[in-house]
Structures are given as structure tokens and as C-alpha cells.
Design a protein that fits this description.
single chain, 407 residues, alpha/beta, Rossmann fold, 2 domains, 5-stranded parallel sheet, 4-stranded parallel sheet, 12 helices, 35% helix, globular
Length: 407
Amino acid sequence: MIKRRFYRYCHLVAYAVLCCVCTVTLAAQARDLTIGVVYAPDDARYEAKRLEKSYPGQPLGRPKAGAEVAIAESSFQLDGAHVKIVLQDVPLDNVQQARAQIVALAQKGVKHFLLDLPGAMAAELSKALATTDVLLFNVSAREDSLRGVACSANLFHTLPDDAMMADATAQFLTAHRWTRVLLLTGVQAADAPQVAATRQAIKRYGIKVIADKTFKLSNDPREREQGDVALLTADTDADVVWVVDADGEFASSVPYRTNQPRLVVGSAGLAPEAWQTSWDRYGAQQLSRRFKKAAGRPMAGADWAAWMATKAIIEVAIKFPDPRQHRRALRSPDLVLDGFKGARLSFRPWDQQLRQPIFLAQGGIGGGIAGVAPFDGFLHPTNNLDTLGADEKESPCKLTDNAGANK
């Protein structure tokens, strides 16, 4: 009896030791993955008064909320791979300070950063980090230059650029044969990138500009006519008024105030959007509901871009534990991402912009969707999504798999 009890005791001890060993082994296999979120605390895009106006194409809040939703809905997948993801804020007061902080984090194993920065800041920071082994994901800057002359081997983009947005609008007009436009453009520096992209799209699709006018919002009585929609749209027989306004305030006053009844597209009226909460196909409504429950507001384009960037990071991090493999994996044609847009999404190898459909929607967030670009009849030799934005032969950016530190 004593001998049996002794053997039983030994078995229990051995089992307990084995459980401890298994627990330690599983713990050793678990990986922590930190994603930095770089933002400017004084970013004018997120001023409270501006957010209240909810202009089409403008953010409704910080897109970090999209990354949080992506992590929460990937919990089962992450648990199965023994990966734990946390977000770490990296406030940017100046580029030099941010670079030092990012390099310090990189030395601790943090290799992925979401950039929620205006275009000029994003370009400057990505240039400062060009020789490092970090990966940057632009989620809120639309400027074409970031994908062109200022492109970088460690910079990816999940938000559509100005060229993609303008091409989507031009395709819509061409498909409906509404090709005679009155072009109204802003004169502020922030308008210039969108104006350039719009003019390029107009030329690309053979749209005829009946009249080309500039607008200006001013309290100066001598400049009042430049902000008068009725005067700006008088004596012009066009199918459509295409307004380009990076700020959104003037554009919001154009629909239903034109001299003659005319359609309005661009920065108001029918506007190109990266995400639209009224999109109800391919499980999109579930994503919009999850986001609204978590963030307390509707999901906008930059929110979707942050969600998509985080999902892309999770995808490659689970498959490839070594971060040095992530850049090549993101650029691989084998990587296919689901963004609830009804298309297979992937990064273009020449400029690392995410291929994706664009919604043409009216009425702002939650408004009706008139169409999704690319439209039928606009074809590309390899991928019809590449009819939106700069194609490989047009782009000044020529990135390769061997470019940069991450190979």
C-alpha cells in the first residue's frame, strides 16, 4: 500500500513537472508584436470644429481606432499563432525627435509603424528613416508625391492617393457620357496636389473642360465674386461641375446653388471615397458596425486604411516570424488581402500603393453609392484596379524587391 502511494505521488509530481514544462514552452513560443502609431498632436485635420462639419473625404477622427478594431477582430487568429499585438503611440513634435524615438523602438524589436501624418511630414519622416529596417504604413495622406518622387522602399500606402480618386471620378463621368465639365479649383497650397491629379485624370480620359475657374473664400469685399457659386457657374453650358477643394468648406456650398441645375462631383456632391458605411456587400456592414461600436462614430476612409494596414501586418507577421521577411511578403503577388470591397487587394510593387476599388458616393458618410470604380469597360493588361492611379510605366517610383533595408 505504501509503495503504491509512493508511485502515485511520483506520477503526480512528474505530471506537474510536465505541465510546467509545457506551459514554459508555450510561453516561449508566444511573440509580442508592437505596432507604433506616429501622429502629430497639433494636426489641423483633427481640430474639433473641422471634424464636426464631416465634409466628404475628410477624416472623422484619429484612424488609430481602425487599427484597434483590426486587432480585436483578429484575436482568434492571433491566439492560434501565439502572437500578441499592442499599439504604441509615437507623438511627432519634429521629425528628428520622431526618428530618434522610432530608431530606439526598432532596436527593441518594433518594426512596424502606422503614419497618421500630413503628406509633407510623412515624406520627411520616411526619408529620414530610409536607411533603417522599419516598415511604415501611410494611412491618412493622399498626396501622389508620396507614391512618386518621394516614394521610399520602406513606405507602404493603404489610403488611395489623389490620382486614384480623380481617375475614379473621371471613369464615372466617362461611363455616363457626362464629359463636358466646368472645373472649379481652389487656390490654396493644399489644393495643388488634388488639382494636379484632377487635371491629369481629365486629360487621361478625354474629358472636355468647358470652363476653368478658380474660387476663393474671403472676407474681402473685392474678392466676394470668387466665392459666389451662382456667379462662378453662370454662362457655362456644361454637363457637370467638378469642384476641387482640399478643405471642403467651399465645395459643400456648391450643390443646389449653381446658376443652372447641374450635377456636382469631386470634393462635394458625388465624391470618391476609400470607405462608405452604406456599402452593404461582402460583409462590409459588419465591419462598419464593429467600428462604430468601438469608436462611437462612423468609419471613414483613413479609419479603413489603418484597419487594412494592421490586417496586412498581422497577415505577414503570422506567416513569417522574422520581420526581415515582411517587406518582400507584402510585395509578393501571393499576398491577397480582403478589404470587404469585393476585390482581391494587393500592393503594387513599383510604388507600394494598395490596389483597391473606389466608391463614388453622394451625401457624405452613409450616403448612397452611385458606383464603384473601376467601371466596366476600363481594362488593364494585368489588373483592372491598376486603371486607377499611376500605372507602372507612368510612375516615377520604381521600387524593387532588393530596395531598402528590408529584403
